[in-house]
Design brief:
Shape: globular
Strand content: under 5%
Mean pLDDT: 81
Number of domains: 1
Number of helices: 17
Radius of gyration: 22 Å
């Protein structure tokens, strides 16, 4: 039994098994890693207060907005192209060329953070920590580049270990420096040291794959890589309007305490957004192969993956909305309770975002990443307009509503675009999910009404939901069990 478990978790044997294995490891690492990081984030938010936490969040968001071109889609292109070829020499050339492009972009991003960002904020404390924020983005960007190599290899078990180590380092350094000095600067230094440790560990683990990273560069590949990436760059820039605009406009129109409260609520949502990203990262190599093989299995795979995203999103949204006030106060403290309504509104966005991440991955696998430009433009511009309209009157709740409406509008376009490319339907998969989630929601409300702690309600509700799916014979659960027992053709796993 132990050998079977080890083989399943550490070897790539079939397409289905590899997707499930990679999803498992990315889930373990991201959930575990985020929980580890949440420990120091919650502590920092409580120690620094809403205003201090608002300063750190605003600095991180401003830097992220101004340096969105750092990735430029390089990581995704590396995963896609490497997973389609078995030529080790060509893979090394793609890796090396992508790395040099990444270094140029990192240099530009660092210049923007250090020179331009200080001129765009009225908060003196933000200017003080921007050099530290620049270091965080350099370390994190290089670490993420290393992670894309693991994704190309479909070896997410290594990525899982590295991600957990990185977050453990952030927790260790963050706590140590906050205990020494309860300031925003101290926490920023701790965060930077943790990301640096993660970057170094990633380089050590990938030393064999990185052997030719400085010598395999090919000028001939620069143009095609950039040609494939530019839609990502533009869509990323436009998409950042939807992700980062809320906090930036709040920082311009409202005090730092409002930024801190909204950022705390949004932090939980961003952790939840990781779940579909995990699934998308695990399925992109498989999607790319199925599209390249012109396989009819692509439609079935897409339906199943989107349905799984709804299987997670629906109960999470229902339970989170019911327990919203208790979660905000219980996690961050009573001073963050005013963010409960904004948090509940933002929870509705996961019903939109979860399938959207899978749909964008499917478009990318089909080589239609240019469609993401229009999608991001619709969402970004709508969010900016609604933020400017709603924040002055409704504050952080207005910001949350703006995000929800912007996602509704942009995702209507996204679903239409994907359905023009692939004929699929997920409606038949949702009936059992809706029934189980409804019963779970009623139970959650009843337990909350009698005063039971949300820490007890959450595991009870989760267990009840899974039990109901099992009793309703949900096909997706049975398929998952079937995958655990199936063996097919081995998948490529070397770079």
């Amino acid at each position: 039994m132990l050998k079977k478990v080890k083989a399943f978790l550490f070897r790539n044997t079939t397409t289905s098994q590899t997707i499930v294995k990679n999803t498992f490891w990315l889930t373990v690492s991201n959930i575990g890693g985020r929980l580890l990081r949440a420990i120091v984030i919650i502590y920092a938010a409580r120690v620094l207060g809403a205003a201090g936490w608002g300063v750190f969040s605003y600095a991180i968001t401003l830097a992220a907005f101004l340096t969105i071109f750092i990735d430029f889609g390089i990581n995704a292109i590396l995963v896609k192209e490497s997973s389609k070829t078995s030529d080790k020499s060509y893979r090394s050339e793609i890796l090396s060329t992508s790395f040099y492009i990444k270094l140029v972009l990192l240099a530009l991003g660092t210049f923007v953070i250090l020179v331009i960002a200080p001129r765009l904020t009225t908060m003196p404390q933000v200017r003080v920590i921007l050099p530290i924020i620049a270091a965080i983005f350099i370390f994190d960007s290089l670490r993420q580049f290393g992670f894309s190599i693991n994704q190309a290899l479909e070896r997410m078990e290594r990525e899982a270990g590295l991600f957990l180590f990185t977050n453990l380092a952030i927790v260790g350094f963050g706590f140590s420096l906050l205990l020494a000095s309860r300031t925003v600067e101290a926490f920023s230094y701790g965060y930077a040291l943790g990301t640096a440790a993660g970057m170094i560990a990633t380089a050590v683990v990938l030393k064999e794959s990185l052997a030719r990273i400085f010598s395999a560069f090919r000028w001939q590949l620069v143009k095609p890589i950039l040609a494939a990436c530019w839609p990502f760059a533009i869509s990323g820039l436009l998409g950042s309007l939807m992700i980062n605009t809320d906090i930036l406009i709040l920082g311009w129109l409202k005090p730092a305490s409002d930024v801190g409260i909204y950022s705390a609520a949004n932090r939980i949502i961003q952790v939840l957004y990781i779940l579909p990203s995990i699934i998308a990262a695990s399925t992109l190599p498989a999607f790319s192969r199925l599209v390249a093989q012109r396989s009819d299995k692509m439609r079935t795979a897409l339906e199943h993956v989107i349905s799984i995203s709804f299987l997670i999103a629906i109960p999470t949204a229902i339970g989170g909305i019911i327990l919203g006030k208790e979660i905000m106060a219980g996690v961050f403290g009573g001073s963050f309770s005013p963010g409960a309504v904004a948090f509940q509104v933002l929870l509705l966005t996961i019903l939109i975002d979860f399938p959207a991440v899978i749909l964008t991955s499917a478009l990318f696998a089909h080589g239609k990443q240019k469609s993401l430009i229009s999608y991001s433009a619709i969402g970004g511009t709508t969010n900016v307009a609604l933020d400017l309209l709603l924040i002055p009157s409704f504050g952080i709740t207005g910001s949350a509503i703006a995000t929800l409406l912007a996602q509704l509008v942009s995702n209507y376009y996204l679903w239409w675009k994907v359905k023009k490319t692939i004929t699929f339907s997920v409606t038949p998969y949702l009936k059992r999910i809706a029934i189980a989630a409804g019963v779970m929601g009623i139970t959650t409300w009843a337990l909350n009404a009698v005063g039971i702690s949300f820490l007890i309600i959450v595991p009870i509700a989760g267990a009840l939901y899974l039990f109901l799916l099992y009793k309703l014979r949900e096909p997706l659960l049975h398929e998952a069990m079937k995958v655990l027992k199936t063996r097919e053709e081995p998948q490529p796993s070397t770079l």
